[in-house]
Inverse folding.
């Protein structure tokens, strides 16, 4: 066991129009190095807030968030966030968009250039390297965002519904791509999604959240078989487990649920 994140009894509230709303309550879990963990739950249950706490963009009101045993006290290059809306600079080419993440890393201009080329090739976009974002499809733009994140060689990729804006075919292609890249780079990935299929396809472990206030209801460990076959009975089995879970109510919270 080599935990990279340890989240202990975390609580978080926000004040909106002078009313305090408890967004997360008593959230505890760990993430192992090299693991892909999906945080799955309905809209508003606090998934993004949890990801922001891991990334150091927010602080907990209660409890602790540890990264490699130390409290997270702000964003760091160890954890790179990828959002649904790509976040590319429209006036920069693919190459320059990837290089931007490498500024202030101590790499020389030549090293930045080579590193960017390497990762653009890994995501299969070498032939588009001098294109601007508007000349690319949504799937290609998200590939650029992935290359930009990976080029930093972070220990952790934090992904907030990264494929949510893509059509089904592009989404599947990017999910395959992510698994392929993660297999070689061995990053830890924490992914927020409300797409049950995406969670089952990508994750080693799924944290199922419920709202009011946001908390973890179940932890589902998916046996290690990759690449996963979306049409297999095993895949359908895990989908059904989660569908059933969302139709249940008033259940005790279980932290471990192995099938
Ligand atoms: N910075 C903020 N200030 C005030 N309230 C916030 C802030 N961020 C989130 N919230 C509130 O916290 C709750 C949880 O939001 P969060 O974005 O974490 O949920 P989510 O599960 O990621 O939702 P979605 O799937 O729709 O993105 C919501 O009620 C939201 O309005």
């Amino acid at each position: 066991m080599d935990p990279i994140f340890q989240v202990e009894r975390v609580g978080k509230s926000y004040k909106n129009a002078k009313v305090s709303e408890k967004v997360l309550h008593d959230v505890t879990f760990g993430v192992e190095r090299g693991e892909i963990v999906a945080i799955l739950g309905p809209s508003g249950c606090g998934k993004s807030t949890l990801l922001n706490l891991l990334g150091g963009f927010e602080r907990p009101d209660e409890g602790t968030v540890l990264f490699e045993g130390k409290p997270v006290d702000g964003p760091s290059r160890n954890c790179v966030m990828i959002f649904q809306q790509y976040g590319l600079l429209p006036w920069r080419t693919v190459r320059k968009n990837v290089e931007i993440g490498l500024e202030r890393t101590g790499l020389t201009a030549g090293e930045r250039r080579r590193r960017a080329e390497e990762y653009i090739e890994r995501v299969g976009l070498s032939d588009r390297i001098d294109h601007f974002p508007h000349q690319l499809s949504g799937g290609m733009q998200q590939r650029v965002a992935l290359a930009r994140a990976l080029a930093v060689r972070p220990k952790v990729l934090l992904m907030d519904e990264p494929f949510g804006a893509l059509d089904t075919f592009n989404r599947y292609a990017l999910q395959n791509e992510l698994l392929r890249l993660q297999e070689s780079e061995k990053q830890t990935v924490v992914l927020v999604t409300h797409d049950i299929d995406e969670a089952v396809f990508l994750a080693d472990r799924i944290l199922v959240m419920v709202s009011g206030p946001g908390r973890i209801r179940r932890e589902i460990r998916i046996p290690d078989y990759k690449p996963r076959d979306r049409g297999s009975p095993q895949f359908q089995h895990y989908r059904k487990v989660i569908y059933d879970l969302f139709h249940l109510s008033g259940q005790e919270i279980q932290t471990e649920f192995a099938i």
In short: The radius of gyration is 19 Å. Residues 34 and 146 are 17 Å apart (CA to CA). The longest strand covers residues 3-16. Residues 14, 16, 23, 41, 43-49, 194 surround adenosine-5'-triphosphate (CB under 6 Å).
